[in-house]
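Reviewers of the previous submission asked for a worked example of the structure-prediction workflow described in the proposal, so we include one complete record here. The input consisted solely of the amino acid sequence. No template or homolog information was supplied to the procedure at any stage.
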Amino acid sequence: MKTKILILFFILCLFNVAFAQEYEGESTKVRYTQVKYPARLVVENLKFIEPSGNRALDEGETGTIEFDLKNNGRGDGFGISVLLTPLSSSKNLVFTSTTNIPSVASGKTQHLSLSFRAESDVQSLKREFRISITEQNGFDLTPFIFSFETQSFVPPALRMEKMAVDDRAYQEGITEADGNGNSIIEKTEGIVVTCYIQNFGQGDAENVKVKIKVLTDDANLNCPDRDKVFEFSKIEAGDYKPVKFYFLTNARYSRSDIPISLEISEKTGRFGANIPLALKVGQQVENVVSVKVDKIDTKKNVEVKKIEEIEELSDVDKNFPKTSLDGSNTLAIIIGIEQYKNAPSANFADRDAKTFYQYAKNTFNIPESNIFYCINDGATQGEFSKLFGADGWISRRITENVTDVMIFYSGHGAPDPKTQKGFIIPYDGDPNYPSTNVSLDEMFNSLANLKAKNVTVFLDACFSGTGRANDMLVSGTKAQIRINIAALTSKLTVFSSSSGTEYSNAYDKEKHGLFTYFLLKGLQNSKQLTIQQLFDYILENLKKETKILGKTQTPTLQTNEKERIILKK
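From that input alone, the workflow returned the following structure tokens.
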């Protein structure tokens, strides 16, 4: 009987698991639902919290951006995603790009805490992040910018430059010394030594430990404080702490030196010291009564460095051109993936996207709410599906024959060796498994069906199976992919960074993709540009530069709108 019950229970468990899996699978297909009332999400009590209280995130610290996400609407909010995307350097910062919230009911508040950890060698600079909060039924917030500073580690410099002895006659409650008071270390005296550990660096020393080390086993030297450890939570820059210990020698002590040293350590383990005290029998040392130790001025002035010094900005990364363009009816999708989960890095791809984002805002005058922007681990296969789906981010914002769509992608592409079709590789895609990637055919078909006024696509990616550093992405292939969109729609224009079996180069000199650099340079230098003029500029300059670099890269343009004006000032 027990066996039958167990079997029945097992079958029911399997049924429940299967039902849950089926339900989950079905629920993921229905991304948008009809709702009776709107959700109205707002952000309140936004603040940055870090542990040291200096209003910056120091090396090794973990801080948080905290805020309340409140729903003031009559309807519940579902499928909420919080996307953090850096607008400046994120080097040596560890954070989670995407935070998902199942729901926030009407009238309720969800408290969010987004953590950042500063790794070793973090630089002192301002960090800017774009925070985008989306809701599955389209009740999104307008993205906003949040910034904080990181502080590079300023090292301490722990030294002992002053030492005093006390060899006065013993007085209870006044001194433990037992000598004649002449400030000379002599045999048979009990000596109290005070060492002043001072921080001569510009950075504070934390968790400082000072250990008394006696470097002899001679029984004629007795140090009751042998191996004693003195602990100080902090020695600030310029400040000092006294370390006091006692020793004595008898008449049989035959050495002239007193081999005692200080072993100093601090929080990081990098700026300690081992200091021999060089005490000698018969040596006169400054008396503890007359020694004077002052806190010193270390001229502590830790500046927040300009980001230009850290990232070595290219000329296209600043002085974004201002234009008279009206971008209020333009959607911009900007994606850059440098670091991949299953593929080699695409050098400078995230930086390409960061800079194009600035051109979208400052040159094309596209409102923040019309920009979809993500880089690296924020650009998953799921995000691409959300973008280009039949009821996706783009299609829900299109006004037929009114809205322009501009897409910029920098990262890896790959071919399917069997079908010779091209794919974009999302962060979590695998070049050797086409099903994990984003089909170019499907993407272009989706764009063709949008009924947008115009669609302009910039692809800084190659589809030869080779990466920016000429590293192989797809095993055993050199497939030749040609992007053919002419038959799809006359409104679709595609700039592609390379053709045939070429690979798209990184431009180490300017810290960008080679194609992206000359794309941005063309936008920066021109007062008015047609589609054809912009392409001609890119092509001409790419030819010159690749010849100098000894490489090959031929961009392509496919359009039926060569004379369409893309830029005017």
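The longest strand covers residues 62-71. We consider this example representative of the routine output the project will generate in years two and three.
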